[in-house]
Write a structure and sequence with these properties.
The structure is a single chain. This protein has 437 residues and is mainly alpha-helical. It has one domain. The strands form four sheets. The chain has a two-stranded antiparallel ribbon. A two-stranded antiparallel ribbon has the order 3-6. A hairpin with a 3-residue loop joins β7 and β8. α7 packs antiparallel against α8.
Length: 437
């Protein structure tokens, strides 16, 4: 394989592995902060034990996320040096702010939270976790503002053969990037909610600490339901933004080949990219795709044939990733709604099948977030910065395929070890349960 293909594989592998940890971190820190706040207000010992238990799982996941995130930024200077030279003036600004402001905020107050149990007042200690939550979500914001600029570049001019920032406010207020941000953090909240529900369900099935885990189950059910519904609304707005700004990506997401107004939504589609058509199209809902794309039933939806073949994203993975994400998103609303409805003890005791279902559902939000990022990044291809710089133009000219092979192999082995370690530690301490009263 050539350097470009290997560099793509390495960055994709690193990014997707890193994002195995980010979603849980985004949501679990908020749940832990809320549990400790309830303890501070009520003095309820169960909420203190919940805080310590879920906080330990948060720390395990957080540590692995930091380790995997560092290698992502290094790759911009190694494998993607031409990209860094061309857009570094713009792209580097939000990443620098993330490192110097958000990351230092979360890491500093996380240390305060870890070592401050016997040294701070209850209110100050709970405030430390809320500041950790703020820092974690601010980190996501600045990173996604950088990625959102790659999806929809604004606030720059081309000068001296490179992109230079002329309007920092345009970058910060990038509407498409903010939709990405809310989509990402809400997906993380759903992931954390289902993680807490699933682990709580496991302990309820074992009839261990039932009072404590009923409380965490109810909190997670409400958190998941609210996040799933909000995610549905943001996802709808994101679809409209993609249809307007990245029509080729939208066409690939829905496998639309021919441009047409009043486009129907096809429930059952089998793409045939080789022949530039769909081999199966059945169960059509009239006008629905036009309405989904532009909130107008008579709107025109551009098809893939409207774009040169060289400017089209890979259809099949984008289409399958999008359908997977949508199907799982609807499932999360259903399951979290049922969990909230069944969250009373007598309901759950009478329905062990539902508790077992929630245990098995723990991996599903991870799958949905991976599918979502696949759609986001592969759907942007062949552009590294949409409409401005192609992916083939950003790869380093001084890196050999052999060097990338070596680093890719080392990363896969190293990350495999870290992944096994993370799953082992999370499973070990999740099964162990909270400390004795």
């Amino acid at each position: 394989m050539d350097v470009l293909t290997l560099s793509r594989l390495q960055f994709a592998a690193t990014a997707m592995f890193h994002f195995l940890f980010v979603p849980l971190t985004l949501g679990l820190c908020i749940l832990v902060a809320w549990m400790e706040t309830v303890y501070v207000r009520t003095g309820d010992a169960d909420h203190l034990r919940m805080t310590r238990f879920w906080g330990k799982l948060f720390l395990i996941n957080f540590a692995l996320g930091v380790v995997t995130g560092l290698t992502l930024e290094f790759q911009f200077g190694t494998n993607w040096a031409r990209y860094a030279r061309y857009v570094g003036d713009v792209f580097g600004a939000p990443l620098a702010i993330e490192a110097t402001v958000a990351f230092f905020l979360e890491s500093t107050f996380l240390a305060v939270w870890i070592f401050g149990w016997e040294r701070l007042s209850r209110r100050a200690h709970a405030a430390a976790m809320w500041l950790v939550s703020l820092g974690v979500n601010m980190s996501a914001l600045w990173i996604i503002l950088a990625n959102g600029w790659m999806q929809h570049p604004v606030g720059y001019v081309i000068s001296n053969g490179r992109a230079e920032m002329v309007d920092f406010a345009a970058l910060v207020l990038n509407y498409h990037a903010w939709l990405q941000f809310f989509h990402t953090i809400l997906a993380g909240y759903v992931t954390a909610g289902f993680f807490v529900m699933g682990v709580s369900a496991w302990h309820l099935l074992k009839k261990k600490e039932t009072v404590l885990f009923l409380k965490s189950f109810r909190l997670a059910a409400l958190f998941s339901l609210a996040s799933s519904l909000a995610l549905f609304a943001v996802g709808d707005l994101s679809g409209v933004s993609v249809a307007e700004l990245q029509p080729a990506k939208f066409a690939a997401m829905e496998s639309v080949w021919e441009t047409r107004a009043r486009a129907p939504y096809v429930l059952l589609t089998v793409p045939d990219p080789v022949n530039e058509r769909n081999s199966v199209e059945t169960l059509k809902i009239p006008y629905m795709l036009s309405f989904m794309a532009f909130h107008r039933p008579d709107a025109e939806v551009k098809g893939l044939k409207n774009f040169p073949a060289a400017d089209r994203p890979p259809v099949l993975p984008v289409f399958l990733g999008f359908r997977t994400m949508i199907a799982l998103g609807m499932l999360f609303i259903l399951l979290s709604g049922l969990a909230f409805y069944f969250s009373k003890k007598e309901f759950l005791e009478a329905r062990p099948w539902f508790l077992r279902l929630l245990v098995w559902a723990i991996p599903l939000p991870y799958l949905a977030t991976q599918a979502g990022w696949l759609v986001t990044e592969m759907g942007r291809q062949p552009w590294l910065v949409y409409g401005l710089m192609r992916t083939s133009e950003g790869v380093s000219e001084s890196v050999s395929s052999g060097q990338v092979w070596v680093s890719l192999t080392c990363l896969i082995v190293f990350y495999a070890v870290l992944g096994v370690l993370d799953i082992y530690l999370l499973a070990k301490f999740a099964r162990k349960g909270p400390e004795a009263a």
